[in-house]
Amino acid sequence: MKQGHIIVISGPSGVGKGTIVSKLLKQNPELHFSVSATTRKKRPSETDGVHYYFVSEECFKEMIENDELAEYAFYANHYYGTPYKALEEARGKGYDVVLDIEVQGAAQVKARFPEAIMVFIAPPSMAELEKRLRNRGDTSDADVALRLEIAKKECLQAERYNYIVFNDIVDDACREVQTIISAVNYEANNRFEHLKEVL
Ligand code: 5GP
């Protein structure tokens, strides 16, 4: 069976990656979400094992030492990383896997898996990004300020991605990301075997 694709959805915190990813997962049952490990505290709306694996710093460092992470980053005072085994298992079963990760980790994924499909979700403006971060209601003022500072640097990395999607109206952004994901199915390296069968 053909290995599933890696689809990286990256971009600044607050831009709406999570909303886009959850809509895509609903629309595409064949997509698999990569649940990250993090040392950040769980928010009330989150479930351990669904949104993240919430782990101690000691546990996270052990995962690094044991080479259990496909990538990881230290972001806004916490560690975040993608468990390697779950990623490879899902791909081995033919699932396309979506990673919702920040830009340092995304660069590591691209280096390790050059065929990964890299999508950067961009804000319509920095003022709108700040509004979205504040409206979440679960991020402190200091954390909003830190995330905004990081956001500008992250946006400057966007030209390394295959695609940039502006998230002004979320349904439009979803449709655009859906188009990108759907196009993957028409890649010649996926279709050529089938083409040979019809000759
Ligand atoms: P949050 O704390 O708001 O859930 O996430 C903060 C940032 O970390 C977001 O940009 C999110 O995409 C990113 N992130 C989540 N999981 C991972 C991961 O496994 N690796 C990396 N590098 N970033 C992640």
Topology:
Layout: E1 6-10, H1 17-27, E2 31-33, E3 36-38, E4 52-54, H2 57-65, E5 69-75, E6 78-83, H3 84-92, E7 96-100, H4 103-112, E8 117-122, H5 126-135, H6 141-155, E9 163-166, H7 170-184, H8 188-197
Residues 13, 17, 36, 40, 71-73, 75, 80-82, 100-102, 104-105 line the site of guanosine-5'-monophosphate.
SSE class: alpha/beta
Provide the gyration radius in Å: 17 Å
Main β-sheet, spatial strand arrangement: 2-7-1-8-9
Number of strands: 9
What fraction of residues sit in β-strands? 15-25%
Kindly summarize this structure in a few lines.
The protein has helices spanning 17-27, 57-65, 84-92, 103-112, 126-135, 141-155, 170-184, 188-197; strands spanning 6-10, 31-33, 36-38, 52-54, 69-75, 78-83, 96-100, 117-122, 163-166.
Please provide a written account of the structure.
The chain contains eight helices and nine strands. It has 199 residues and is an alpha/beta fold. Strands 2-7-1-8-9 form a five-stranded parallel sheet, sandwiched between helices. The protein has a four-stranded mixed sheet with strand order 4-3-6-5. A hairpin with a 2-residue loop joins strand 5 and strand 6 (78-83). Bound molecules: guanosine-5'-monophosphate (5GP). Residues 13, 17, 36, 40, 71-73, 75, 80-82, 100-102, 104-105 line the site of guanosine-5'-monophosphate. Guanosine-5'-monophosphate binds at residues 13, 17, 36, 40, 71-73, 75, 80-82, 100-102, 104-105.
Which features characterize this protein?
binds guanosine-5'-monophosphate; globular; 21% strand; 199 residues; 8 helices; four-stranded mixed beta sheet; five-stranded parallel beta sheet; alpha/beta
